[in-house]
TrEMBL record:
Listed transmembrane segments: 13-46, 67-89, 162-181, 221-240, 246-270, 282-301, 313-346
Origin species: Duganella sacchari
Stated name of the protein: Predicted PurR-regulated permease PerM
Sorted UniProt keywords: Membrane, Transmembrane, Transmembrane helix
Main location (coarse class): membrane
Superkingdom classification of source: Bacteria
Annotated compartments: Membrane
Membrane topology: Multi-pass membrane protein
GO process annotations (BP): transmembrane transport
InterPro entries hit by this protein: AI-2E-like
One GO cellular component term noted in the UniProt record for this chain: membrane
Similarity-based family: Belongs to the autoinducer-2 exporter (AI-2E) (TC 2.A.86) family.
Amino acid sequence: MPFPLTVEQKQTAFWLAVWAAFFFLLVTLGPVLTPFLAAAIFAYALNPGVDRLDRLRFGRRITMPRALSVLIVVTLFFAAITMLVLIVVPVLQKEIPLLQAQIPAFLAKANDVLAPKLQELGVKVRLDSAGIKQLASEQMAASGDAIWSAVLNSARVGGTAVLGWIATVVLIPVVLFYLLLDWHAMLARIAGCVPRRYIAATMGMAQEVDVLLAQYLRGQLLVMLVLAVYYSVALAIAGFDVALPVGIITGLLVFIPYLGFGLGLVLALISAVLQFSDWSGLIAVAIIYGCGQVLEGFFLTPRLVGERIGLNPLAVIFALLAFGQLFGFVGVLLALPASAVLMVAFKHLRRHYLSSSFYNA
């Protein structure tokens, strides 16, 4: 005969079911939550600046209103992003036509190298501009209806994606403003929902996570700045025409582990192949990005970010894939800080497990 559940056990089971349903809803609504997650990340990073403005005094009794402090910080933040875009976009507009003009030479070089090997395998195709145009024409003539259907489907999906990005870009500043405005009250409400018997342990873990993430954010911003300057200057010295945009993109995307460095490396390799007629460009890219990895991995990250956040590379790759699957691009941005938070939680859970009677019995 099963034992009847006590009132406390029934309440515990009920609230566990409620929280499980809540987290399932969050996972289901992952794409919708993208602007809110992005705004929450920005709000956590910008809140110390708002708090500093709040503490400013004009005279003995006059202090700056919270709303004005939030407005100033948000305006400066998006002004900095706009300035960055205004720096990179004109350079790209100037350099992209140069790259486009060099594409025929690149295709001719690829045809000279790869076409004989493909012919040995029984594949007869020309990789120059004329050959690619002919291949595309044959494929379009053979499957015009299928291509037209694919284009229409792509346009529908692409239009929906564009509208989603526009909504996200518009929503982030609005959500960010209100999150910063009610930041401390919101945290107090969250703390008020924690069961009283767990409040001390929860607040202790929250403070530990806060220290960890603050160290991560400050250090990562410095790493991004140093690497953006390094790659831009090094590529410019090597004679790359696209040194500034590629260097800035590589440095700023470092906060996405592996993917950021990989994207910057691919852009630099493409620039080297298109700009240089010999192997000097590829050798320069290998030296510059190799030294950049050594600089980041052995000096900048340990000194500026700290080894406390260090995670196993396999854990980082899994976190990138998992959070990207759940929350899209913002999930990729959130992966490493969230992994640090989960690491703190796992450390406490492991300590509790090792001291439990279940383990020691």
